[in-house]
């Protein structure tokens, strides 16, 4: 979202991004808890106003309203965008905490929860596929915060980057979701955003901390690692 705002010319969206290693428990540190009492990433502190913002949907809405971008201003367009933003907030836990947990992380491969949450993940992909059948983006012809929220989970899933589950869920059959996911993946702001706070994988795509737009060229792991 911040990279998209910068790409749109909103220089006030210039930001610092720090890694919170949830495996190490950084989210329970007092500094982080002051910004998000729920101890989950992501969280934002607007240093201009000292406003704390937590929950990804609230962060997206806050930034959209602060900068007047990526959220339609007419009541119909705004409502449809928020419909899908809230859809993501309610649905993604079934994908991550439900399907992802039992398919990839649980200590044993229990058939019942895997089947139950795989069925739900596929149902959700079908909902998105039908929505995208006659629209460029989730809420209509414009790219909005709903696309940003939904792509970050469902786009990553169909592009084969989540749980190695693309084949298992037959993601290729959701052709409209695939088309939409690939189009968003090609956005320069998305490519930059995916590098921010990345701490594994290809070193030249890892920008562990981001403090300046020039960091994408100068501060990736391949450049700073000795
Ligand atoms: N509803 C929250 C979900 C945030 C969330 O679950 N974050 C996970 C990472 S994807 C987390 O911080 N987990 C750390 C923990 O549970 O201790 C949002 O959309 O911001």
Give an overview in words:
This protein starts with a helix and ends with a helix. It has two domains: 2-69 and 206-218, Glutaredoxin (3-Layer(aba) Sandwich); 75-186, Glutathione S-transferase Yfyf (Class Pi), Chain A, domain 2 (Up-down Bundle), CATH 1.20.1050. The longest helix is centred in the middle third of the chain and has 31 residues, at 75-105. The model has no long low-confidence stretch (mean pLDDT 97). It has ten helices and two strands. The protein has a two-stranded antiparallel ribbon. It has helices at residues 2-7, 30-35, 56-67, 75-105, 111-131, 145-158, 175-185, 188-193, 215-218, 221-224, and strands at 43-46, 51-54. With 226 residues, it is mainly alpha-helical. The structure holds glutathione (GSH). Glutathione binds at residues 22, 27, 39-42, 55-56.
What shape does the CA trace take?
Answer: globular
What's the CATH architecture name of the largest domain? Up-down Bundle
Number of helices: 10
Whole-angstrom Rg = 18 Å
The CATH C-level class name of the largest domain: Mainly Alpha
Number of beta strands: 2
- Ligand inventory: glutathione
Number of domains: 2
Mean pLDDT: 97
Helix content estimate: 40-55%
Structural class: mainly alpha
The H/E string reads HHEEHHHHHHHH
Spatial separation of the terminal alpha carbons: 32 Å
What does the oligomeric state look like here?
A: single chain
Order of strands, widest sheet:
1-2
């Amino acid at each position: 979202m911040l990279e998209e705002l910068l790409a749109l010319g909103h220089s006030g969206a210039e930001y610092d991004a720090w890694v919170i290693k949830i495996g190490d428990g950084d989210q329970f540190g007092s500094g982080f808890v002051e910004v998000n009492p729920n101890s989950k990433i992501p969280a934002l502190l607007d240093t201009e106003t000292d406003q704390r913002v937590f929950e990804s949907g609230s962060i997206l809405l806050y930034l959209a309203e602060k900068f007047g971008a990526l959220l339609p201003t007419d009541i119909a367009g705004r409502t449809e965008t928020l419909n899908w933003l809230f859809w993501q907030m309610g649905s993604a836990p079934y994908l991550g905490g439900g399907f992802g947990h039992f398919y990839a992380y649980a200590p044993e491969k229990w058939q019942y929860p895997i089947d139950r949450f795989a069925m739900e993940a596929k149902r959700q992909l079908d909902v998105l596929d039908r929505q995208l059948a006659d629209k460029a983006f989730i809420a209509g012809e414009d790219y909005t915060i709903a696309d940003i929220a939904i792509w970050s989970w469902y786009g990553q899933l169909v592009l084969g980057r989540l749980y190695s589950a693309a084949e298992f869920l037959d993601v290729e059959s959701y052709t409209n979701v695939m088309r939409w996911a690939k189009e968003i993946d090609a956005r320069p702001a998305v490519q930059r955003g995916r590098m921010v706070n990345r701490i594994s994988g290809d070193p030249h795509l890892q920008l562990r901390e981001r403090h300046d737009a020039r960091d994408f060229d100068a501060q990736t792991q391949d450049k700073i690692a000795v």
